[in-house]
Amino acid sequence: MDELSALLKSARNEQRQFTIAGNGTGTTGGRIPLGEYVISMQKFDQIGEPVLFSDKRASITVQAGVLLETLQKKVEHSGWFYPPDPTEKLCFTGSTIANNSSGARSFKYGPTRNHVARILLVLPDGEQLNLSRGVCRADKEGLFRFTLPSGKEMSFKRPEYSMPKTSKHNAGYFSEEGMDLVDLFIGSEGTLAIIAEADLLLTPLPRSIISCLVYFKAIEELFLFVSLLKEKGNGISPRAIEFFDGHSLEFLAAKYPEVPVGSEGAIFLELETTPDREESDLDILFSLMERCNAMTDESWMALDHHEQERLREFRHALPLIVNDWLSRQHESKISTDMAVPEHAFGELFDFYRSSCEEQGFVYIIFGHIGDSHLHLNILPRNREEFLKAKALYRRFVSKALELGGTLSAEHGIGKLKAEYLVGMYHEHGIREMARVKKYLDPFLLLNRGNLIPAAYLETETH
Question: Is 394 exposed, middle or buried (0-12, 13-18, 19+ CB in 10 A)?
Answer without folding.
Answer: exposed
